[in-house]
Amino acid sequence: MHGDLSLLFLCLAPFLVLASPSGKLMSRFIPQHPPKHYSWPLAPRITIISMFTPEEGAWLVPLDLKYNISVPGLSMLYPHVHCDDKGWICQMTTGESEINAAASTTALFFSPYFDFTSTYFMIVGIAGGNPYYTTTGSAANWTTGYFGFGTTAPDMYPGMSNWYGTEVFELNTNLLARVMDVVKDVKLNDTADAAAFAPANLPPTIVQCDVATSDVWFSGAMLSEAMGNITEIWTNGTGKYCTTAEEDNATLESAVRAHLAGMVDYSRFILLRTVSDFDRQPPNVTAYDSLTGPQGGFEVAITNIFSCAFRGCRLELGSI
Questions:
Q1: pLDDT given at position 268
Q2: What is the full per-residue pLDDT of the chain (320 aa) written as tens digits?
Q3: Are residues 80 and 32 in contact, defined by beta-carbon separation less than 8 angstroms?
Q4: 69, 31 in Cβ contact below 8 A?
Q5: I need a surface site. Which of 133, 154, 200, 269 has the fewest CB within 10 A?
Q6: Looking at domain 35-317, what is its CATH homologous superfamily?
Q7: How wide is the angle at C-alpha 260 spanned by C-alphas 13 and 238, nearest 5°?
Q8: By C-alpha distance, which of 34, 30, 38, 35 is closest to 13?
Q9: What local confidence, expressed as pLDDT, does residue 317 receive?
Q10: Nearest to residue 72, comparing CAs of 113, 132, 128?
Q11: Could you tell me if 13 and 32 are in contact, meaning their C-beta atoms sit under 8 angstroms apart?
């Protein structure tokens, strides 16, 4: 996971003045070379948010997302939103790291090309995994040497003056419960290479837990224990850190701001991560060798993105 770089650019697009249903005039940008059979602004039933090319590739062909909509403000590497023939399912890719996730999703949520007020969003990607599933150890010690900003010991809760307001996000638990009920029996893919690294050779399963977001790609038992301790403290002991990622808090902060502006409905966001590697080394392996060596999970994690998330898509396209 990488350091932040700041990038500012301006995008201009032609616009048309349209009459709203109430008769009042309003400005609406219309994409250049838009699919002719779409009505604007487009109102997808579900939008999938990916972070980089392999995650994006899990969706484009299986869902026939062949219509490209160029949206000003998206990543220069991923300038298009891809949609199906009816405009019901769309997919966008943010680019990796928190700064790309925040910038790209903000551009998307506030784009006048779309009406997202009734859209369900699925943030779906691969992640590092905690083989113990829950946070490890007690925070009341100095085994890692890490403690939070504005504190003097690992077991201290930061004062309110030291909160940025983007540390912890909670999604709609009712929606989560319904999606979990639908996907719990999905048969996930596995390989012999991936199974060789799994704790006790357990097969892939679907679990409900929490994601730790960091722009720094941390690996090894000491750093992972420190992040687990922080998760436990910041959530008053309720957080179950089981996967690691580098974009989710940034995407969710953009979603909160867009919700407050009336552009999206935050209660319609769901987050799914498939594990491609483990965040710490197994016994008798160094943290460095665990980080740099193969773990056999990347391809199967990419495959399971569609296997699991598409069941959730079908639910969201139905009668949630």
A1: 96
A2: 444 333 332 333 333 333 334 333 334 567 877 788 999 999 999 999 999 999 999 999 999 999 999 999 999 999 999 999 999 999 999 999 999 999 999 999 999 999 999 999 999 999 998 887 632 223 345 667 788 888 888 888 888 788 889 999 999 999 999 988 888 888 887 777 776 766 645 778 888 999 999 998 889 998 998 899 899 999 999 998 899 999 999 999 999 999 999 999 999 999 999 998 889 998 889 989 988 888 878 988 999 899 888 876 766 666 44
A3: no
A4: yes
A5: 200
A6: Nucleoside phosphorylase domain (3.40.50.1580)
A7: 125
A8: 30
A9: 61
A10: 113
A11: yes
Q: Which two tokens stand for residue 24?
A: 């009042």
Maximum alpha-carbon separation in the chain? 71
Domain boundaries in the chain? 35-317
Dihedral angle, C-alpha 237, 241, 246, 249, nearest 10 °: -40
Output the 3-class SS for the chain. CCCCCCCCCCCCCCEEEEECCCCCEEEEECCCCCCCCCCCCECCCEEEEECCHHHHHHHHCCCCCCEEEECCCCCCCCCEEEECCCCCEEEEECCCCHHHHHHHHHHHHCCCCECECCCEEEEEEEEEECCCCCCCCCCCCCCCCCCCCCCCCCCCCCCHHHCCCCCCCCCCHHHHHHHHHHHCCCCCCCCHHHHHHCHHHCCCCCCCCEEEECCCCCCCHHHHHHHHHHHHHHCCCCCCEEEEECCHHHHHHHHHHHHHCCCECHHHEEEEEEEEEECCCCCCCCHHHHHHCCCCCHHHHHHHHHHHHHHHHHHHHCCC
Q: Which of 305, 278, 270, 273 is nearest to 294 (CA)?
A: 278
The first and second tokens of residue 225, run together, are 């224990």
pLDDT at 318 (0 to 100): 61
Residues of 9-39 as b/e, b for ≥16 C-beta within 10 angstroms?
eeeeeeeeeeeeeeeeeeeebebeeeeeebe
